[in-house]
Each structure stands twice: as C-alpha cells, then as structure tokens.
Amino acid sequence: MITDWRPDEFLEGYEVRTLPLTPDPDGEDPINAHLVRKPDAVDTPRGAVLYVHGFTDYFFQTELADFFHERGFAFYALDLRKCGRSLSAQHSPHYTSDLAYYDEELGTALDIVTDEVSAVGGSPQVIVAAHSTGGLVAPLWLDRLRTDDPERHGHVIGLLLNSPWLDLQGDPRLRTAAAGRLISAVGSVRGKQEIPRPSSSAYGDSLHSDAHGEWTYDLVRKPLGGFPATFGWMTAVRAGHRKVHGGINVGVPTLVLRSDKSAFHGRYDPAVDTADCVLDVKQIAQWSGCLGERVLAVAVPDARHDVFLSIERVRKTAYAEVDRWMESEFEQ
Fold it and tell me: What CATH superfamily classification does 6-330 receive?
C-alpha cells in the first residue's frame, strides 16, 4: 500500500495519499481512506480547510479548493472509507453501521493537515467543511472531539456546512418512532439489505456535463442515480439525527448554507437547477440551531443541493457569504 503522496488519477495537478485504517467493524476489509491536496498551492498558509464529502460523492470540486487557496488557506479533502477513491470491489459503497467509525480517518487527516501546514511555517488552524451526509458526520465528530480530545479539537477554528443532512426527508411517517424501530430492527440483522425506494437521476443529471450540467466527474464513484441506501447505514444516520436533535456543541463558529427551496422530481426538470432536489431545506433550517452555540444559517437563493455546484451566479452569492463569515469570525 502506497502511503506517501502521489499524483491523483482523478484531478490533474492534485496529489492523493492513502490512510491505512484498522480492521473494518463491518467486515469488508481491507479498508482505507484517502486524503487529497494540491501541492504548493499556498506558500505559507494562514490556515487550512479539511473537506468531507456527502453520500454518493467524492472530492472533485476544485473550484471550492481554488476559492480557499486564493485566500491563503491550504485545502485538503478526505474521501472516507468505502467512498470515492477509497471504494474497492469488496465494499458496499458508503456503508457504515456507525457514523463514529469515521472518527478514525477524520482524526488522522486532521493530524496530517496540521503537521504539514506547521512544517511550512503556516498556522495549524483548520476550518472543517462538509456537505450533505458529511454535514452530519462532521458535527457529530467535533462534538465528540471537543470532550474526548480537546487538544486535537483546539486546532479546529470553524465549521462550514453545505446543505447538511440533519433529518429524514419525505413522508412524515418515515420519521415516526415505529419507523425508526423497524429500520433499526432490520439493520441489526440485515444491515446491507437495500431499502426499497424510487430511483431518480434528477440531481445527477442536473450536475454532470454528459447530461444537463457543467461538471465532469467519475460516474463509477458518483453514479447519476446514486448508490442504494441500506438498512444498516440508515440506522446509523437516524441515530446521528437523533443526537443532533437533542442538541450538540461543535465548539466552533459554524456557517450553514442551504438553498431557499426544495423541488423533488423523479427525473430531470429545469426546476432542480435552482433548488435542493435531495433534502428538505425546511428541515435544515429547523435543526441548524442544534449544532452549537454560534451558528449562522443562510439560505442562498436558487442554490442546488451542493451549494457550490449551483449555477454560476448562485455560486458567487454562496462564496460571498463564506467571505463575510470568515471576515467576521477569523479576521478581527
């Protein structure tokens, strides 16, 4: 296993490093994670960003990296176990039975980032950025880190969430206690069984350049119709939702970006170009305040589910919001 930095096969000018992991609690060894960077993008970083992707996703958003590079921040992206660059033939894509299992690679990545930035004379202060399911994983990790490892947590100065998945969208009956018990019961014995659900490529078609979008990415690691959801994985997600709903404290200033509206379609429709067609933005608004003591929630008009993959004029608005937040929190 190559654990040094090497050229990334997906992004020109970027490098990737394999992070070996301990044996998989879910029995799909071998597993690892991958950290991605653009070398020499910033000479003496004023800080760093550690980015965490969502479900059916991996890091390819180089425009986001460029945004932070231009502001003097080194940018690193983590492909979690069984996701993106870390997905192998023996893996159930994106499967975990406990979101806390991701703490291993998140902690390792944070250490690498702070060590590398310090080594070139930069500031080992890190903004964690996360999207969708990553926007659930990262706050839960920081909440645990704040109490379990305050020294490591001390390197994190902010949290930027892009359409975090904070509740289960759809029919309210899916959110009842009875539904939760059913999901958990099936998940405990047949965790990798797929949950029956209608398929939709509306979001993927709105993004990919082969369909209606402007972005190019690997359709094996990010298929247009998404990977199947499983009962074990959903059990882990719902446990995370309950934890957030009870109130957590990430311990750092937090910016939550989301669209101003949702529009759900079974197939591509122009409406999904200017709305979140994956999550219910009202739920994001409802639960954002449960993340910590200092949370700024902003609705970006006409944003997509991945706010930073919205159409150009909307991306400019979103980046301006990030600039204002950073100036307010970190440049006083």
Answer: Alpha/Beta hydrolase fold, catalytic domain (3.40.50.1820)
